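From: lab user (bench 3)
To: helpdesk
Subject: output format question, protein + adenosine-5'-diphosphate

Hello, I'm new to running complex predictions and I'm not sure whether the block I got back is the full result or only part of it. Here's what I submitted:
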Amino acid sequence: MVHLVQSRVKAYFLDKEGSHDWYHIKRVLELSREIHAIEGGNKELVELCALLHDVSDHKYNGGDYELGGAVAREWIMDAGGSDELANQVSLIVPKISYKGANVEDQKLPIEGQIVRDADRLDAIGAIGVARAFAYGGSKNRPLFNPDIKPVMHDSKEAYLNAKTHTVNHFYEKLLKIKDRIETASGKIIAKQRHEFMVSFLEQFHSEWNIKASYDDWFKS
Ligand code: ADP
Ligand code: NI
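Helpdesk reply: Thanks, we reran it on our side. This is the complete output you should expect:
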């Protein structure tokens, strides 16, 4: 059954933009399996949540955060999965997405924590840098604008409607991820990927303006 779902997901994501393509789903699936091997939980549930976590992403479905659960449920039923499994997945999927710097994450069972961690780990480090600029490019956003500072959003609506330059996305989300990872194994992976992003930003700011370090820009 997981294989059937996987084929459908792969076909659906194959031609999507680089930040949210099939390889993003595949990396989240593989990282989720690695974390699951250490943390435990229901493996099938982990795999299905990883495969289905972005099937109806709010950024691409007109801003509906809840639709993802219903679509995931339908795809599991279509593949012959049980009602119980479909229900469990449909409750986890809408809680995976990041909703703003000042918006608390919703509680998840271990299977959901694993997939949310894996999804967030794929948003940081070298791949995170690549994905952020791919996404920004797809929306025709500037790389950076020193006059527009980051905003810590208090609601998912404000976060979703923000259309800023891509460097701000690091301050508004990507640098926050390290402290929002829940599993012990995820935290270890996050530390190194976070450090890489910090050094990327330092280099970026030093090339942009010889005088400004990454800290100076953020605080100025
Ligand atoms: P989540 O999986 O928590 O819902 P998103 O799908 O919003 O997260 O974002 C996944 C990735 O897409 C981000 O980590 C980033 O690489 C890219 N992305 C999303 N929004 C932006 C943005 N405003 N600027 C740059 N990249 C973005
Ligand atoms: Ni994702």
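A quick orientation on your result: The chain has eleven helices and no strands. Let us know if anything else is unclear.
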